[in-house]
Amino acid sequence: MEKNRYELAYMTRPEVEEAVKKIKTVILPFGATEQHGPHLPLGTDTFLARAFALRLAKRIEALVLPEIPVGYSYVWKGIPGTVSINQETVKTIVKDVAKSLDEYGIKRLVVLNAHGANASALKYAARELREEIPIEIFYFTYPALDEVAKLAESPRWHGMVHACELETSWLLAVCPELCDMEKAVAEYPEGSEVDRYHYSSLPMGALSKSGVFGDATLATKEKGEVMVEKILDHMEKVIRGQKI
Ligand SMILES: [Zn+2]
């Protein structure tokens, strides 16, 4: 297994003790385990979170925690392979991680979330932590998305990102061996069920036959590379306090 100098899980106790004397920022990659259509694996969000985290770590000199492989995946309930933890659990994980880091002098936690439905729990975790420990928290769920979406040829489905041209391009950029583009499809679910979805507890599994929301067939590694770097630029600027 390849050892990465930024990943805590691969470091020894003396290596970490030395690293945290200088490095005061830690990144927590947060993913999910849920269907991503016929062409991407269930771990897509988790793999993306880790890959983005490693690239960000190089830019801002941070350590990277082991990725959290499950998230709040209510919308895919009942579909084989889905594992969903509730919003409270997502919040508790972030808070417990932050408190652990605070014990040995880490000053900043960056939660790099690759799964949209985790986002609101992260916001509340950060707000609650502000009252409890002095650690600075940033949380990102694919920032600059409107700008990044302009680089795609196909529109998003209701502004969402799921197994579409965007997400497929990102995974092609960071883990191409995990994408089976021969199986990629396009699907834009419409109809009364879609209208109800926005105003009810209807799961998304009821809307799309393939599990794709958008046009995955147009995804490319080249587009993905540009998009991934744009998203990382945005995160880096926010963390450094630069104008975005
Ligand atoms: Zn995803």
Structure, described:
The chain has 244 residues and is α/β, with parallel strands linked by helices. The chain has one domain (8-240): Rossmann fold (3-Layer(aba) Sandwich). Helices cover 40% and strands 10% of the residues. It is built from 8 helices and 6 strands. The strands form 2 sheets. It has a 4-stranded parallel β-sheet with strand order 2-1-3-4, sandwiched between helices. A two-stranded antiparallel ribbon has the order 5-6. Helix 2 links the parallel strand 1 and strand 2 (63-64). Helix 3 packs parallel to helix 4 (119-132) and helix 6 (165-174) packs across helix 8. The longest helix is centred in the last third of the chain and has 20 residues, at 221-240. It starts with 12 loop residues before the first helix and ends with a helix. 41% of the residues are buried. The model has no long low-confidence stretch (mean pLDDT 95). Residues 36, 44-45, 115, 162, 167 line the site of zinc ion (ZN). Zinc ion binds at residues 36, 44-45, 115, 162, 167.
Q: What is the overall silhouette?
A: globular
How are helices and strands ordered from N to C?
HEHEHEHEHHEHEH
Distance between the termini: 37 Å
Main sheet specs:
4 strands, parallel
Which molecules other than protein and nucleic acid are bound? zinc ion
Radius of gyration: 18 Å
User: From the 3D coordinates, which CATH architecture would you assign?
Assistant: 3-Layer(aba) Sandwich
Portion in helices: 40-55%
Q: How many beta-strand elements?
A: 6
Number of helices: 8
CATH class category name: Alpha Beta
Strand order of the largest sheet: 2-1-3-4
Strand percentage: 5-15%
Structural class, by secondary structure, is alpha/beta
